[in-house]
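Students often ask what a holo structure prediction actually looks like on paper. The answer is less mysterious than it sounds. You provide the chain, you provide the ligand, and the output is a string of discrete structure tokens encoding the 3D arrangement of the protein together with glutamine.
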Amino acid sequence: MAKARLRIAALYPEQLNIYADRGNIAVLESRCRWRSIESHVTAVGLGETIDPERFDLIYLGGGQDDDQRRCAADLLEHKRSGLIAAAANGAVLLGICGGYQLFGHWYELADERIEGVGILNVETVRGKGPRLIGNVAVETSLPGASPRAVLAGFENHGGRTRLIGGGAPLGRVIKGNGNDGVSGEEGCRDGNVIGTYLHGPLLPANCWFADWLIATAIGASAELAPLDDALELAAHKAACAAAGVNG
Ligand code: GLN
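The corresponding structure tokens follow.
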């Protein structure tokens, strides 16, 4: 039975909010409100801990290397155990780009290694090549979602991410680079813990995925009430077209 309540933690909204990633939070709130599902967003900043009982969905956006560096140290010191406990409780954890990298084991730059939370089995290396930038489309297979549902968005990352230790991708790249530009893999998912390189922001252009996150986070056994998604579907189609695929 659905709790009809979504409690969201937005981690480091000041530091990790590149490409207006906070738009993802706005989409979650709106789609809940339109269905009379109560939602509540708590900003969790530097120095603050996470009470794993208080959140159904925890969100970590992307950022520049410098901001990531600062937040990574804080994540390890103040938030790691709360994140692990929240995931064990069944909370959804979503990391975007820099946030995705920090959910992994480490992000290695020229002469330093930024330690991550290690909640996803990935490692990221900055390497020498050019940044991986552009529109991207990804075919997913998520439990309860349409088979081969497409996520469309935009990526811009210097880091190359590799799945390790049995980590599974979120999806397969149809167009774009994804994790490293060569593996054909995009993102990582371990149960309810998800990392992806897709900005856009992601959720305004992929409302099906926003609903998947909401349903998973609140444990809705029944389907969420349908909404008039004419604009959202047009946004999805446009994002797919930008990547060169049919939406
Ligand atoms: N700083 C990271 C990189 O360049 C993540 C960038 C981002 O979040 N867009 O790989």
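Residues 5-243 form a domain with the Rossmann fold fold (CATH 3.40.50.880).
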